Amino acid sequence: MNLSDEEKMMYSVMDALFNSGIPIDFKGAMVLKACLMEAGYPEETRHTADIDANWYSEIPPTASQLENSLETALKKSGVNLHAELYRMYGEGRSAGIELSDPTTGEVLFTMDVDVNRPVQPSQIYVVEGLHFRGITPSQMLADKVSTVSSHKVFRRIKDVMDLYYFSKVFEPDREQLLQALQNSGRTLGDFRGFLQSTAELKHAYEKFRFSGGVNKPPFDEVYDTVKDYLKDVIPKTV
After folding, report:
1. pTM exceeding 0.70
2. What pLDDT is stored for residue 214 in this prediction?
3. I need a surface site. Which of 26, 49, 86, 163 has the fewest CB within 10 A?
């Protein structure tokens, strides 16, 4: 699996924050990519233009503490980027941070940071010598299955795609999945949208764009693969 220059830069940012001791764990597509690479997945996966993270601290950080902590960490690691908060976190809302070229001011990618959400199990990942702490594969799988089982599936087609990737390298364990859902306070829906509204789901999939020339498999292949992958957790009565 090849990494784009942008992805390498994002991993450099994650490595810098990890080395700084800032109380941040990562999640989302960048962790998924690292997880798949460690499992030996050979093909290209969907690209992303942001980093997703969880910040944990006894006292919630102020806006200036968020910015200053990130700026200091990047400078200390020699990552030549400027971090600027453009959205403060709040109830049900993550903090939004822009990472830009300090010379031109061009925003290269963004970072979404949830503050003091329920703690998720994590582990250390290494990508081309860059280290960071990210949520575990089992927790990532549980989060995506929870979304796909709900009506949110139509707005989160990328989670269906990610389960397609997961199916190539990880065997699902029903009991482990249910435990991960319970630990994170998530629930398992009835999968009605996924199972009974395939035309609507296909429409959403066709609209979902893959950047960077990454292969987009046919919808039927993705759908059938994911449906079979989740057969042990999909209710038999739906």
Report:
1. yes
2. 79
3. 86
